[in-house]
Amino acid sequence: MSHFNPHDKYFKKAKEEGYRARSAFKLEGIQNRFHLIKPGTKLLDLGAAPGSFMQYAAKEVGEKGLVAGIDLQKIEPFKEGNIHTFQGDIFDEESVVEIFNRLKIKQFDLITSDLAPKTTGIKSIDGNASLELNLQVLKIAQKHLKKGGGVVMKILSGFNEGDLVGETRKLFKQVKKYRPEAIRKSSHESYLIGLKKC
Ligand SMILES: C[S@@+](CC[C@H](N)C(=O)[O-])C[C@H]1O[C@@H](n2cnc3c(N)ncnc32)[C@H](O)[C@@H]1O
Predict the structure, then answer these.
(1) Does a structural domain hold residue 4?
(2) Mean pLDDT, residues 48-64 taken together
(3) Of all protein residues, whose CA lies closest to atom 5 belonging to ligand 1?
(4) How many domains does one find in the chain?
(5) Which of 16, 56, 152, 179 has the highest Cβ tally under 10 A?
(6) Measuring from each residue's beta carbon to the nearest atom of ligand 1, which residues come in under 6 Å?
(7) What domain range is 24 assigned to?
């Protein structure tokens, strides 16, 4: 994550621009390519801590939009009024329902997920854990994402990818894979983007 290499270009840029992690530039790369976040967008960020996706998204959605983020870990509060943070497990229905009760909204326009399992280094175990997380993201999207909305999911490229693409196709008209420049060369990460929820 963000603190590995202080000489990394995006690490420096994150520090300069006040982001909590360099991941902000992954979402920026996705936004520059797909323009999914619009002024007024209501965005749900899954696996949001420490919060750099939310910081970037909050600027893009503006005052009329909102960004809600949930993570197992506590997310330190933000000064931005359009960011709402929650602590909880995405597999726990009550934690997810609390988001809607507190924000008093029915559905989101966009769901982003940078969810990452605790990795073991064993590819098959990590790949399966990542798949489970993403299948849960799709479940949440099925229920809580507006028709026509989009989803962005972090994937570990190559592992169970076909299974996830198949499941995503059932729910979205278009499915694309994208690897923003800010992903480290050595990483197997990529993002799967579902566009236009059916
Ligand atoms: C790579 S970090 C996210 C970084 C974030 N996008 C940012 O820009 O600051 C992945 C996060 O997924 C969270 N996570 C993993 N499993 C989760 C679960 N079941 N429910 C909620 N959060 C989870 C982890 O706690 C971790 O903070």
Answers:
(1) no
(2) 98
(3) 48
(4) 1
(5) 152
(6) 20-21, 23-24, 47-53, 70-73, 89-91, 114-116
(7) 9-197
